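Figure 3 (text version): structure tokens given as input.
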């Protein structure tokens, strides 16, 4: 039975094709790859330069717990190589990158576990648009010069699916730009799962509403540079997806005033259960400190509140005709109809030209099985119903 598939890029033909991978084969051959990822894999810090890595360690007072010294050593080795190729890339391309005027991007908004990956993958079937790949966001400073040799090497040891679900992962797949910003600034909420003892410090970067002006400027400069670099390589409008962008609309519009946005939402109860599961599964692949899961549920609800408080306060800033909202439930029920509405609302071009590719992708993931969870504790159900009531009311979910 096929539990997951991806819509991949045929670079020679310039078209997209669907590749389905049986989950049963993963179960037979993936254990050693997952063991590497959990024990010594550098995770999202694999693309740091040595200078940035040492700065990050110093900022966290060198507090790497003994079980993760091997991971820290792997990051250090990778950082040394990255430093060399980042310098070469800067010399060869920096002037051209900074001269590039990128088309306004399209931002896929939606808090984590709302279906943003599914929507991102669907939109990535349109070869009139481009997206940052997993390799590009992991190696933002050196992907122009290192992909030819690094991608084959990493593909041999990289896990074939995400730890939190059955979604396949590949270095050519669409991926969140947040990981690139994490490497470029070391100031994103992603870092809270790497240094959990400073979780409060890194959670500030979820919306940047409590950040200093210099921190905000650093984020915006890095985002613009990343988009310039990707546009320099791809020469097409970019699809960018990060759950945290849902609470950063004002900051995004200051950098890209003509950007377009599509927001996908999902029943808050389902989001909470899936986010809790995801947080527990992903942390071992990223952390450099022992994790304490007490308070996880409260943190997830607080983050949900913060993101949507910012979203509702800033949504009106998006120009008319530049925002479309849809539900994950509707997209899952009638994908083609919802995508047609999206394309019409944002004037993305004729949907008919890509409909066959989308249908091919849908066929490939038709047997995908979502995670199933036990019933939610009544305490958290009541807490979510009370504290997240605006999202229930806004989109018609029964609390």
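Below: residues designed for each position.
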């Amino acid at each position: 039975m096929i539990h997951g598939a991806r819509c991949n890029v045929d670079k020679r033909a310039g078209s997209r094709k669907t590749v389905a991978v049986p989950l049963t084969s993963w179960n037979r051959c993936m254990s050693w790859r997952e063991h590497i990822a959990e024990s010594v894999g550098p995770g999202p810090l694999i693309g740091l330069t040595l200078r940035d890595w040492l700065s990050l360690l110093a900022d966290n007072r060198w507090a790497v717990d003994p079980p993760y010294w091997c991971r820290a050593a792997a990051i250090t080795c990778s950082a040394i190589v990255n430093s060399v190729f980042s310098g070469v890339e800067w010399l060869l391309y920096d002037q051209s990158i900074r001269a590039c005027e990128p088309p306004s991007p399209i931002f896929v908004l939606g808090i984590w576990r709302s279906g943003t990956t599914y929507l991102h993958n669907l939109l990535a079937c349109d070869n009139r648009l481009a997206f940052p790949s997993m390799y590009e966001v992991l190696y933002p400073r050196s992907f122009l010069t290192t992909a030819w040799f690094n991608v084959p090497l990493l593909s041999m040891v990289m896990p074939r699916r995400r730890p939190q679900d059955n979604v396949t992962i590949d270095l050519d797949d669409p991926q969140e730009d947040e990981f690139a910003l994490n490497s470029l600034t070391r100031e994103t909420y992603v870092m809270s799962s790497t240094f959990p003892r400073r979780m409060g410090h890194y959670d500030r970067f979820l919306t940047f509403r409590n950040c200093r002006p210099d921190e905000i400027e650093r984020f915006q400069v890095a985002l613009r540079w990343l988009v310039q670099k990707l546009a320099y390589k791809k020469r097409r409008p970019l699809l960018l997806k990060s759950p945290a962008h849902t609470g950063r609309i004002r900051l995004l519009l200051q950098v890209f005033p003509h950007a377009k946005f599509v927001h996908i939402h999902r029943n808050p109860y389902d989001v909470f259960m899936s986010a809790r599961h995801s947080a527990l599964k992903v942390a071992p692949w990223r952390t450099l400190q022992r994790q304490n899961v007490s308070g996880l549920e409260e943190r997830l609800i607080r983050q949900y509140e913060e993101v949507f408080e910012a979203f509702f306060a800033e949504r009106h800033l998006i120009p008319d005709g530049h925002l479309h909202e849809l539900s994950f439930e509707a997209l899952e029920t009638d994908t083609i109809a919802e995508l047609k509405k999206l394309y019409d609302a944002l004037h993305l071009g004729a949907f008919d030209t890509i409909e066959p590719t989308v249908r091919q992708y849908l066929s490939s993931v038709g047997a995908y099985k979502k995670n199933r969870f036990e019933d939610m504790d009544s305490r958290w159900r009541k807490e979510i119903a009370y504290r997240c009531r605006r999202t229930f009311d806004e989109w018609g979910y029964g609390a």
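The two ends are 35 Å apart (CA to CA).
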